[in-house]
Amino acid sequence: MVKLLLVEDQKDFADTVVDWLAAEGYMVDLAATGPDALGLLRTREYDLIILDLNLPGLNGLDVSRTFRRHGGTTPILMLTGNRSIDDKELGFEAGADDYLTKPFHMRELSLRVRARLGGATKGILKVRDLVLIVDEHRVTRDGKSVDLLPREFALLEFFMKHPGKVFSAEALLQRVWSSTSDASPDTIRSHITRLRSKLGYDSDNSLIVTVHGVGYKLEP
Fold it and tell me: Which has fewest Cβ within 10 Å: 25, 86, 97, 174?
């Protein structure tokens, strides 16, 4: 599942954006201040940052500059009520990749998000005889449907997008669960156990393997 960070201090507007993006199939973390945003960016990874320009504590330009200065490469879509070219130029110089001027239609936001993600929400993932169709939220093995709960689907999708790469339980929590979740490494273990059972691979040919002392990986 694609994970976004929305940085917006106007609560009603932020709630509207979060609800819209969630309905589009994205997982969204929300930060209301510049320092809160940097705190999340230090500990979690996102596919896209939607960053308001005017924020308490630290404005969007400073958040973007700080994030880029520390090596952050995640695309940034900046939101602003300022229409002048000079203001937008400052944003691009601070590290923004795109601008969206308020007020805007939520459909335009969706278009900008998809453009910045470069199609990350679309496609068909295949590993062995397993097929995951992202847009249809559907999984099949050897042509037979596999019924997965939303978080199981998101976890499998993440593994299939990173075959062979080992992730600790903490890294999986950061990438697949919301920052407001009270999930723990035990949650990861239980989800992986259920995934293994539902996918039906035997223990000698497991799809998701445990790398003892390190984490888990999808074995292609």
Answer: 86
